[in-house]
Design goal:
about 110 residues, alpha+beta, 3-stranded antiparallel β-sheet, 5 helices
């Protein structure tokens, strides 16, 4: 498979594409929706709620963390997650800017 040549695109284009890729998986959307409704979330809660195995949930959490959307704190041996609100607003604005600036004048 060929190289993706991400270096020829702007930082904003690469960042938006990476976020879109992470958000393109329904399990990650379900995870974010669940976490957003909690004060904190333990990974085992996600396993029960989403219905995927713990290692699969962990892989999805890692992908979400890569784009900075999750903050985690330890409570004993458990890791609790919450959505990083500042990062969420940044991505929300980036997507808004992208969709608002698309020119719809083509056929």
């Amino acid at each position: 498979m060929g190289s993706s040549k991400t270096h020829i695109f702007s930082i904003q284009q690469n960042e938006l594409a990476q976020a879109a890729k992470v958000l393109a998986h329904p399990a990650r959307i379900a995870i974010l929706e669940y976490i957003s409704k909690q004060e904190g979330c333990i990974c085992n809660d996600l396993v029960d709620e989403i219905g995927l195995a713990q290692p699969t949930i962990s892989q999805h959490l890692n992908e979400i963390k890569k784009i900075g959307l999750l903050q985690g704190t330890y409570e004993g041996k458990n890791l609790c997650y919450c959505i990083d609100q500042e990062r969420w607003l940044q991505l929300q604005q980036a997507f808004h800017n992208f969709f608002s600036n698309i020119n719809l004048n083509c056929c």
